[in-house]
Amino acid sequence: MYFMSNSNIPIPLSSNDLPLTIIFLEEWTLITINGIDSIKYLQGQLTCNIVSLNSNQYIFAAHCNAQGKMYSTIRIFYHLDQLSLIIRSSVRDRQLEILKKYAVFSKVTITANDNVVLLGIAGFQAQETLNQFFARLPNILCPVIHYTDTTIIYFSQPKHRFLLITTHVVRNYLLHVLTGKAQINNSKQWLALDIEAGYPIIDDVTSTRLIPQAVNLELLGGIDFNKGCYVGQEVIARTKYRGMNKQKLYFLIGNASNIPVTGESLEIKIGNHWRCTGIILAACQMANQKIWVQAVLNNDLEIDSLLRVREDNNSLLNIYPLFYKTL
User: Fold this and answer.
1) Could you tell me the residue ranges of all domains in the chain?
2) pTM given for the model
3) Where is the signal peptide (predicted)?
4) What pLDDT digit, counting tens, does each position of 115-141 carry?
């Protein structure tokens, strides 16, 4: 087994500066759903269209309560012929409890798969490196590829990177061969890449506080408005068709005395005063000493708005564009 000590963990880098890196995803969890009612059951639970999902795709989605507020954001795909969800580990127990609660009348088995290894491969020549181990890799047209014991998912943003759902044997072999050729990092590096990509992060402290549109999930293809009923569907559809959503997800870069706390608000400068606004979904300190923040704020902010970490006179955060077009 491979162990990482805090002393040898690199500080996260931007996608432009990242060397070849193997990333341990200890802050993410895989949940599997199998049984003859799997598709039907999840179709009534998630915001995406499970029926249209094929084995070489993944879909962003959310699982919501009846008020349309998200328990979690999800990436759903097939792994070893089973429907599989990747979520943040902090929401794992609650997510399992809710999914199982509503599955009592369906022929499904829902489990957290702690036996698999979730491994990210990103940075300089990530694709060329993986080509040494796998005959075929996923790409933007075919983003999921399957092998006997490994599923590989391709993400195009912020630069191409790969997520492996695999075994301890495969992980250890990759580490052995790539020792001295790739740096090794933990989930903070993958979190930084998700922040840069604009992929929404929902942890336990932000669970059930936001609707999917507020984190740009519609722009990522994670909401299907034609699929029919699912939990929270009435609120989510009404919000869209009546233009009721007043928030969106932002990528902020700047300075702060401390790393902002997930679930807390930021402050915006209005005139000569600072006012509380929004909610922080994720934050990390980068190798260049800058602070990266993913936050949900009002969707009508000016691009040059002045923001800061709450009550931090040394903080200043600026809005940076996401790769997808926001409203």
Assistant:
1) 10-197, 246-320
2) 0.96
3) none
4) 999 999 999 999 999 999 999 999 999
Q: Give the separation between CA 253 and CA 170, rounded to whole angstroms.
A: 36
> How is domain 246-320 classified at the architecture level of CATH?
Beta Barrel (2.40)
- Are 10-197 and 246-320 in the same CATH fold? no
**Residues within the annotated binding site for folate?**
28, 190
Residue 285 corresponds to which amino acid?
Q
Instruction: State both tokens at 188.
Output: 């903070």
Burial of 263 (0-12, 13-18, 19+ CB in 10 A): middle
Binding residues: 28, 190
**Cα 303 to Cα 310: distance, rounded to the nearest angstrom:** 19
Tell me, what amino acid is at 151?
T
- 275 and 255 Cβ atoms separated by less than 8 Å: no
pLDDT (tens digit, 9 = 90+) per residue, 59-71?
Answer: 999 999 999 999 9
Give the pLDDT confidence score for residue 5 in this predicted structure.
53
Please list, in sequence order, all residues whose beta carbon lies within 8 angstroms of the beta carbon of residue 233, skipping any fewer than 6 positions away: 47, 68
10-197: CATH number: 3.30.1360.120
Contact 239, 304 (CB under 8 A): no
Residue 269 structure tokens: 């400068």
